[in-house]
Amino acid sequence: MRRALALFVSVLLLLTAVPFASAANSSFSDVPRNHWAYKEITEMAEKGIIAGYNDRTFRPNNQVTRAEFAKIMIAAADVDIEKRSISQTFKDVPKSHWAFYYVEYAKPYLTGYKSGSTYTYKPNEAAVREDIAVALVRLLGYDKKYNADLNQLKKFKDDDEISPALRSYIAIAIQTNLMQGSNNYFRPQDPITRAEAASLLYRALIERKDGDETKVIFPAPEDPKPTPISIRDTFNTTDLKNWLPDNATGSWGVINKQATAVSVDKDLDHYLLPLKWDESDKVTHYELSVDVNVSGTDGLGGLFFNGKDGKANVVFLQKDRVVLGKVNNVNDDKVDWIASGSYKLKSSNRLTVNVDGSSVSIYLNGQFLFAQQQVKQEGTKLGLYLQREAAKDTPRKMTYLDNFSFQEIK
């Protein structure tokens, strides 16, 4: 593995570079002793793993493109490129592109983009920090060794900028100390620089002394690891395409790019909007989040889960607390309380519900509030929840729901 990692960092840092005749000379004119990555750059150079340019600079702020990154992945795995017949996957990486074979061989580990049925790779854009996190985790085999703890992401103010399909990899990179953030930010979309690459690979190659000498072989492209389910909705359109309004209780719609509900049925006390997803996947560990935005009401809205036969567990906000309960009849205003936690209602409240088997944890605005054990998973329906009182004085007073997310946790 150290051979593969050494090759990884060597290719990463020498792409487009003209090296010194002697890599052992680690004195770079643009890396002073007070540079944040001085130790990592210096020690990697002294070990002959990295080199600088022929003008005795290291150029720590130079970026690496996504096409170069594909080549790095192949070099890291020590894969021999056979220029046999390979189908083109990405519209912007044709067979005439210099990185075509690198991209195709490394495809299971590369982030790409999909629009309709068209895939693009954006080869000339910079590789970003979340790309490197995935590479490190896969290279070390940590995605097979560790279960992702997505709570690790809550410590970062920009965790919503992490691509949904990569969140589990980022979590593993953080919990194994492969990557870190700074000042409560992870910066997932920031371009990776040579200095950052030196620091990241130093921690993976030099500081980690686990004695694991197993050579890393990439899995076959036709058998990639299943991507966790991830669905988000900011309600920028009115079609509710991610939802099942025909199966909802109450009449749901989008007002000012936020979801809410009303009903002319005076007997209906609970409004449930089910999410459209493959319930046959039997997901047992997942996280739901939504912004509960209050306009003149006491909240009385949030999320539901474990839905089945008109019954569901609900989590909703009140004026001075958050409640986890059970709705057994949508035509009965009664909610059987299971647990609650004190909370002072704000105009905007970020509610998160983490369900892990029979354990439920509640977070408000990124902070843990309370947890409850032995909440049996009885159903698979989940989604948005409002009580009738939340829309009693519409349109003057109303509770709105926004920025919904559903994330399976592997």
The end-to-end span amounts to: 25 Å
Percent of residues in helical segments? 10-25%
Helices and strands: which structural class? Answer: alpha+beta
Strand content: 25-35%
How many strands appear in the DSSP assignment?
16
User: In angstroms, what is the radius of gyration?
Assistant: 25 Å
| Unreliable runs | 16-25, 209-224
Can you give the mean pLDDT?
A: 83
Tell me the series of helices and strands, N- to C-terminal: HHHHEEHHHHEEEEEEEEEEEEEE
Which oligomeric form is depicted?
single chain
Number of helices: 8
* Main sheet: strands, sense, barrel: 6 strands, antiparallel
Q: Order of strands across the widest beta sheet?
A: 3-16-7-12-13-14
Shape designation? elongated
Structure, explained:
This protein has 410 residues and is of the alpha+beta class. Helix content is 19%, strand content 25%. It has eight helices and 16 strands. It has helices spanning 2-14, 38-46, 66-77, 100-105, 129-140, 142-145, 167-175, 194-207; strands spanning 113-115, 118-120, 230-233, 251-255, 258-262, 270-274, 285-295, 301-308, 311-317, 321-327, 336-342, 348-356, 359-364, 367-372, 381-387, 398-408. It has a six-stranded antiparallel β-sheet with strand order 3-16-7-12-13-14, with no helix packed on it. Helix 2 packs across helix 8 (194-207) and helix 5 (129-140) crosses helix 7 (167-175). The two termini are 25 Å apart.
